[in-house]
Amino acid sequence: MNNIDTRYYLILGRRLGKKDGGKYFILRDGAWEQDNNNEIMDRLMGYDPSEPPESPYGIGNTDVMDEIEEISYEQARVLSGGVI
Fold first, then answer.
1. Is residue 74 classed as helix, strand or coil in its secondary structure?
2. Is 20 helix (H, G, I), strand (E, B) or coil?
3. Model confidence at 83, in pLDDT bands (50, 70, 90)?
4. Do strands 68-71 and 15-20 pair parallel, antiparallel, or not at all (unpaired)?
C-alpha cells in the first residue's frame, strides 16, 4: 500500500527514486538504497555541478530540473516490477 507521505520520481526517464520518511532512495538492482549521491535532491533544486561554486547559475537550472519528474504510486509500482 502507498504511504501518503511517499513521493516517487522518475530520473532521466529510466531510474526510479522516492522520498520516504524525509529521506531519498534510488531503486538499484531491485532494492531501495539511500540516495547518498543526492541524485534526486540535486535535480529537484536544479543543481548544476558544471558551474563554478560562485556562479549564480549553479542552482535553479531548469535543464537539470527537467531530468526528474514526480510520478504516481501506480506508475512507480509498474516501473519497479512490483518492488514497492
1. helix
2. strand
3. confident
4. unpaired
pLDDT cut 90: percent of the chain above it: 83
Cα 84 to Cα 81: distance, rounded to the nearest angstrom: 8
Residue 71, Cβ neighbours under 10 Å: how many? 18
Q: Residue 67 burial by CB count (10 A; 0-12/13-18/19+): exposed, middle or buried? A: middle
Question: Given a cut of 90, is residue 2 above it in pLDDT?
Answer: no
- The label of the residue with cell 504511504 reads 3
The residue among 9, 63, 4 whose CA lies nearest residue 38 is: 9
pLDDT digits (tens, 9 = 90+) for 46-77: 999 999 988 988 999 999 999 999 999 999 99
Task: Please count the residues of the chain.
Answer: 84
Q: Order of strands, edge to edge, in the sheet holding 7-11?
A: 31-34, 23-28, 15-20, 7-11, 68-71
